[in-house]
Amino acid sequence: MVWAPDAACPRRSAGHSPPAGDPLVTESIKQDYEPGQNQSGWLLACKIIMIVVFSVLAIRLWFLQIVDGPGYLEKTLSNQFGRAEIPTSRGLIMDRHGRPLVDNEVVFEISVTPRNVEDPGWLSAQISRLTGYSEDELLAKFNALAKRAPYAAGVWISGLTRADLAVIESRKHLFDGLSVQINSVRRPFRGDFAPHLVGYMGEISQAQLEDEAFRGYRQGELVGQSGLEQGLESLLHGDKGLRQMTVDSKGRMLQELKVDNPRPGHDIRLTIDSRLQRVAQSLLGEQAGAVVVMDPRNFEILALASSPMFDLTDFVGGISADRWRSLNEDPFTPMQNRAVNGQYSPGSTFKMAVALAALADGVVTPETTVSCSGALKFGNHLFHCWNRGGHGAVSLHNSLKYSCDVYYYEVGRRLGVDRLAARVREFFGLGRTLGLELTTEKAGLVPDQAWKMRRYNRAWNPGETLPVAIGQGYLLTTPLQVAQYTAVVANGGTLYRPHLVKEVIDFDGRIVHNSTPEIINRMSLKPEQIEVVRRGLEAVVNDPGGTGRRGQLPDVRVAGKTGTTQTVSLERYQGFTSSNRPYRLRDHAWFTSYAPADNPEVVVTVLLEHSGGGGAKAAPVASKMMAAYFDKSVDTNLMPPYQVQPDKPGGWKGEL
Question: Which CATH code of 3.40.50.720, 3.90.76.10, 3.30.300.30, 3.90.1310.10 fits the domain covering 81-270?
Answer without folding.
Answer: 3.90.1310.10
